[in-house]
Structure formats: structure tokens, C-alpha cells
Specification:
Radius of gyration: 17 Å
CATH class: Alpha Beta
Helix content: 25-40%
Shape: globular
CATH architecture: 3-Layer(aba) Sandwich
Number of strands: 8
Structural class: alpha/beta
Strand order of the largest sheet: 3-2-1-4-5-8-6-7
Largest sheet: 8 strands, mixed
Mean pLDDT: 86
Number of helices: 8
Number of domains: 1
């Protein structure tokens, strides 16, 4: 994909501005982004299991990504980049909002982590390819999903692993992720636009069109007493791993 297509792929400017306004509060586990702090351990559990399965690493290893490169697209303030760095990866984080990148860089520096952060669209950045590419809760904010996923696929090195998560487009997600969650302040108003959500079947088809096959998929569900957890229930949210076909 060339730069000429960036305008089609882009995170909408109003979306980037919306999340930029939240940047300063991003690392506060009780702040406006509390929902991300709660879901992050669940997403990281899936990523770790996917890494071990894909790269045949020892589940007991504390640095399963040692010697590998990782890219997080739509990195926000670095909630996924920092754990990936601690797992041994050489990490690059890209986000459309420069304020997010500034917040991420400052937090990584304070944490003693060497992470490369860049602001912009992934299609327009000359950053090469990566062993692991993650893009979590991003595709639902993208105008042209197929073009975006083509750019994501282009960032995968041969033999690489992709992990995506996104809300499902179901009556339950409309009620709970958009209506109730915003009403009670669980997520800031304007975070989600239900009509932009993608079903697992739609996402698998889009990934197939850009040369990727899904290897594993789990729901991210919630229930009293257990909170958020990996589940067979995909009604609200799901996470998947994928690799190049063949």
C-alpha cells in the first residue's frame, strides 16, 4: 500500500483527537481508561498463549519474545507495548495521535524501557516488518477496514504472528458496550460506534482477502465474581491470532 491510500485507511481525525484528549489519563488504572486496564491482562494472556503456540516457545520462559521484533498498531499510551518489551521483544508502537505517543514515550522512559514510538498511519511509516504484530481495539475505529488490514498484513515478517481484538457487532454489544458502558462511565462517551464493529466472520473474511488465516479465536466475556476472562462467548468482544496462508 502506498501513501496515496493513507487517506482511505486513516483512523478518522475526530477519533484520533478523542483519544489524544485521554492520553494524560491513560495510565491511571482508576481513570477514564480503567476499562483498558481491566481487559489488558486478559489480552496479554491470549497473546502469550499465541506466542508460545506459534513460535514453539517454552510457556515457562520469562522472555519468550527474546530476539524478536514486535509492532503494536494503535498503541495508545503503551499499555501493550510495555508488557511486550518485558517479554523480551524489541518493540515499536505506532499511534495516529501524537499526544498518545508522547504519553507512551514518557511512561516507557520512566519505567526504564527502550521502546520506539512513532506517530502516524502505519502505511506511511518506513518501519519494516515484524515477527509479532498486535492491533487491539483499533479496527473498529478505522474507516476502510480492508485497506487497514492490508497495511497490517504488510508489516508481518515471513513466519510472523498477528493478534487482533475488537468488539463484536451484536445486540448485546450495542446494549452493554455502547449504551450501558457509556451511561455508567465505564468508557468515555463517544468511545464506541456500534455500526463500525466487525463480526468474527467478517473479520476472518477480510483477513483472508489480505492473505492471512486465523489460527485461534476466543471471546472476551464478563461475569460476576470472575470479571473479564477468555471464553467461548464472543457476544461482546473477541481476540484472534492469524498468520500468512500456506
Amino acid at each position: 500500500m502506498g501513501n496515496a491510500n493513507v487517506s482511505n485507511v486513516t483512523i478518522r481525525p475526530e477519533e484520533a483527537a478523542f483519544f489524544a484528549d485521554l492520553a494524560k489519563d491513560w495510565w491511571n488504572p482508576k481513570g477514564k481508561m480503567a476499562s483498558l486496564h481491566q481487559v489488558n491482562p486478559v489480552r496479554l494472556q491470549f497473546i502469550r498463549e499465541a506466542v508460545d503456540a506459534h513460535f514453539d516457545t517454552d510457556p515457562r520462559s520469562i522472555k519468550p519474545l527474546g530476539g524478536k521484533t514486535a509492532l503494536d498498531i494503535g498503541c495508545g499510551a503503551g499499555l501493550v507495548c510495555e508488557p511486550l518489551a518485558r517479554l523480551g521483544a524489541q518493540v515499536t508502537g505506532v499511534d495516529a495521535a501524537s499526544d498518545n505517543v508522547a504519553a507512551a514515550s514518557a511512561h516507557a522512559k520512566a519505567s526504564g524501557l527502550d521502546i520506539r514510538y512513532m506517530a502516524g498511519e502505519v502505511a506511511s511509516l518506513d518501519i519494516g516488518t515484524f515477527d509479532l504484530v498486535t492491533s487491539l481495539e483499533v479496527v473498529e475505529h478505522v474507516a476502510d477496514k480492508r485497506a487497514f488490514l492490508a497495511d497490517v498484513a504488510a508489516r508481518l515478517a515471513p513466519g510472523g504472528l498477528l493478534v487482533l481484538s475488537t468488539p463484536n457487532r451484536t445486540p448485546a454489544s450495542r446494549l452493554l458496550l455502547v449504551g450501558a458502558a457509556e451511561a455508567v462511565g465505564y468508557v468515555p462517551k463517544g468511545t464506541h460506534h456500534w455500526e463500525d464493529f466487525v463480526t468474527p466472520e467478517e473479520l476472518e473474511e477480510l483477513l483472508a482477502e489480505v492473505g492471512l488465516e486465523v489460527t485461534h479465536r476466543r471471546g472476551i466475556a464478563w461475569r460476576p465474581g470472575k470479571g473479564l476472562h477468555l471464553s467461548d462467548d464472543e457476544a461482546l468482544n473477541y481476540i484472534l491470532s492469524a498468520r500468512a496462508k500456506g
